[in-house]
Amino acid sequence: MKRTITLTVLNRPGVLNRITNLFSKRDYNIESISVGHAEQAGVSRITCVVHVENDRVIEQISKQLNKQIDVLKVTDISDQAIVARELALVKVAAQPNNRNEIQSLIEPFRASVIDIGKESMIIQITGETEKVEAFIELVRPYGIKELARTGTTAFPRSSQRPGQTKSCSLV
Amino acid sequence: MLQEAAFTEVKAESSPVSGADLLIEALKKENVEVIFGYPGGAVLPIYDSIYDCNILHVLPRHEQGGIHAAEGYARVSGKAGVVIATSGPGATNIVTGLADAMMDSLPLVVFTGQVATGVIGTDAFQEADILGITTPITKYNFQVRRIEDIPKIIKEAFHIATTGRPGPVLIDFPKDIAAAKTARPDEPEISLPGYQPTIEPNYLQIRKLTEAISSSKKPVILAGAGIMHSNAAEELKVFAEQQNLPVVHTLLGLGGFPADHPLFLGMGGMHGCYAANMALYECDLLINIGARFDDRLTGNLKHFAQKAAVAHIDIDPAEIGKNVTTSIPIVGDAKEALKLLVKQGGKPPRHVEWMAKLDSWKLEYPYWHEDVESPIKPQRLMQMLHEKSKGEAIVVTDVGQHQMWAAQHYSMSAPGRWVTSGGLGTMGFGVPASIGAQLAEPDACVIAVVGDAGFQMSAQELSVIAEMNLPIKIAIFNNHSLGMVRQWQEIFYKERYSHSRMPSQPSFIKLAEAYGIKGYEVHSETEAGEVLEDVLNNREPVLLDFRIDASENVYPMIAPGKGLHEMEGVKK
Ligand SMILES: Cc1ncc(C[n+]2csc(CCOP(=O)(O)OP(=O)(O)O)c2C)c(N)n1
């Protein structure tokens, strides 16, 4: 099953190395990892999406991460109502004759064209992983020349209704 | 008066100190008694400060020897072992020791030299990415980037290494920072917001365990090296006696509970004794205190303590539930937990039948061996070492068959007398570790029990033993083979002895003599008795080349993949 873990870490040299090292050392299967500064100076927020076989593994991962000296907090937010987003840049083969057709696919996804060349265009899309993947599949037949994804970054929502499981939204 | 004070203050401010001096000052503040170090280009500024620093410095003959010596020192003294190595090859030579200390939770503070900050990352002469290399095998590592951070980094390093679950901490020290000068920085304060080990156990969990004990019919304690790390041997004894609970030790736990105590069952695991392993197999309540359920202890997990509720007391929460499902997790210091348990003083279990069964197993299936005068039986030799040293020696071992015979036959009656490489199983550990052990307890009788192969992995350290006249007794259990490998090839590979025999060897006696150490070759039990009588009581180093029966195997044994109840060689 897929789980999303967020960590806050002290922004010290080598901290990311320690964390990625831990994943490979303990043989954990990681789907994506995204890192950036958090609201507090000197602190970074890391979001990891991992695939695990059972709850025991996710508990182990959390404990091993927590054990790292520079890790301030580890939260498994998979069972909370969360806002999760990733950004993808997709360079799609596009000739003048099918540009409009591709444009029409983009709209419902609220993606945007950020660059147009002679034979291709670059589309930027943000959203939950499922949405991003659905979009990629949709444009695949036109020919994807390059693809870059940031991996998921996520937060718990401000209000958590009791008993509420994951809420999905398209945008 | 006022003027004078102002004058001295200005003077203090205006006399700058070097990075290397700050390092030495910080070590003195931590009451470091001994440094195990080896100089080289990148640490020359540090060595210049060491020149007249008044801390004992031991020069091993290989950096790996230095770090194993520091491990031996840490294990016996309970204090952090301090190591210095130069950049590049010096630093990579200590990698095995770091991995060993990480596995066995030994507190070390290790300094490596590094090329100057300006050339880091350029593949400069003797540059190695030692932070990258050691990240998975250190509890933490630092690189000093600013001279004024030195006191703080060193203070934090000692704090991290020695608190919580102990472990090795590495500080990478660029040469230019050691040489640079600065005004004396302020008294440092530790700031490690992400590091707060839990010491006090949760009271509700303690109560749950107390209740589980009262209602159990077949309880057993499994005690590991956590007992030693938290200095809890006395509390363990009080608790076991109060609740009338039998005790099994892991390999590294030996000495935490007196071996001659009626409640002691013996060592568990691959070469443990029948009563201990069957107790772990049959119990209905397993109380793990400071052990990590290593696979050499548990055997096949499918068969391990399947009928038991498991309680686990550990200072490292990540160990709880890692290998064995645990219903009573207790995060905290073993000593604190044991004190609370004793204070609770619940009703002891009613387990007369269980205790009778354990006693009968103990009586019926002790360790066994054959009695032969010559070649010497290693088990008998181990017992003789015990007798002749009155069971009071610090026993340091290498890795292999002799290590298991030592664990089985040198009954440990007190903590801090057993030094062995458990988790990593590092050959070459024994001789250098014995140097550190002897320095930690200069008056103790230290016996280094080593195999003929492992001895040759660190024999160069004889030079240190001779130079410092350390009265270490090196007992080589010489079977002209990589005994433990030979045993596995005999049992599991149809006696196809692939590269596990060493028919041609140097004369170990002549080797010892070359270093100025007396040596004896011993062929029979009678000779062994006489020589030991002679040498164990004098205060000189000695090397004993015991010619043991080369065909001897370590039994009992649990084959890989088997459960604790599937022991082989339990009886003659
Ligand atoms: C550095 C290292 N290399 C290889 C091994 C694998 N190994 C384990 S025991 C052993 C044989 C040890 O032989 P010896 O030192 O003579 O001790 P004995 O088993 O004969 O008592 C070997 C090769 C190891 N543990 N460590």
From TrEMBL, chain A:
GO BP term (any one): L-valine biosynthetic process
Q: Does the UniProt entry include the keyword Acyltransferase?
A: no
Q: Which GO terms describe its molecular function?
A: acetolactate synthase activity; acetolactate synthase regulator activity
Q: Which reaction does it catalyse?
A: 2 pyruvate + H(+) = (2S)-2-acetolactate + CO2
The pathway where this protein functions is: Amino-acid biosynthesis; L-valine biosynthesis; L-valine from pyruvate: step 1/4; Amino-acid biosynthesis; L-isoleucine biosynthesis; L-isoleucine from 2-oxobutanoate: step 1/4
**GO CC annotation terms, alphabetical:** cytosol
Question: What highest taxon heads this organism's lineage?
Answer: Bacteria
* Keywords, in A-Z order: Amino-acid biosynthesis, Branched-chain amino acid biosynthesis, Transferase
Tell me its EC number(s), please.
Answer: 2.2.1.6
Q: Name one Pfam family in it.
A: ACT_AHAS_ss
| Domain ACT, residue spans | 4-79
Could you give the subunit structure recorded for this chain?
Dimer of large and small chains.
The family annotation for this protein states: Belongs to the acetolactate synthase small subunit family.
Q: Which NCBIfam families match?
A: acolac_sm, PRK11895.1
Query: What role is this protein assigned?
Result: Catalyzes the conversion of 2 pyruvate molecules into acetolactate in the first common step of the biosynthetic pathway of the branched-amino acids such as leucine, isoleucine, and valine.
- Mind telling me which PANTHER family this protein's record contains? ACETOLACTATE SYNTHASE SMALL SUBUNIT (PTHR30239), ACETOLACTATE SYNTHASE SMALL SUBUNIT 1, CHLOROPLASTIC (PTHR30239:SF0)
Protein name in the entry? Acetolactate synthase small subunit
UniProtKB/TrEMBL annotation, chain B:
Q: Which PROSITE patterns match?
A: TPP_ENZYMES (PS00187)
Domain Thiamine pyrophosphate enzyme TPP-binding stretches: 398-546
Keyword Amino-acid biosynthesis listed? yes
Segments forming domain Thiamine pyrophosphate enzyme N-terminal TPP-binding = 18-131
Question: In which pathway is this protein known to take part?
Answer: Amino-acid biosynthesis; L-isoleucine biosynthesis; L-isoleucine from 2-oxobutanoate: step 1/4; Amino-acid biosynthesis; L-valine biosynthesis; L-valine from pyruvate: step 1/4
Question: What remark does the entry make about the cofactor?
Answer: Binds 1 Mg(2+) ion per subunit.
One Pfam match, by short name? TPP_enzyme_M
Q: Write down the SUPFAM superfamilies for this protein, in alphabetical order.
A: DHS-like NAD/FAD-binding domain, Thiamin diphosphate-binding fold (THDP-binding)
* Protein name per its UniProtKB record: Acetolactate synthase
Q: Specify the species.
A: Mesobacillus zeae
The taxonomic lineage of its organism, from the top, reads: Bacteria, Bacillati, Bacillota, Bacilli, Bacillales
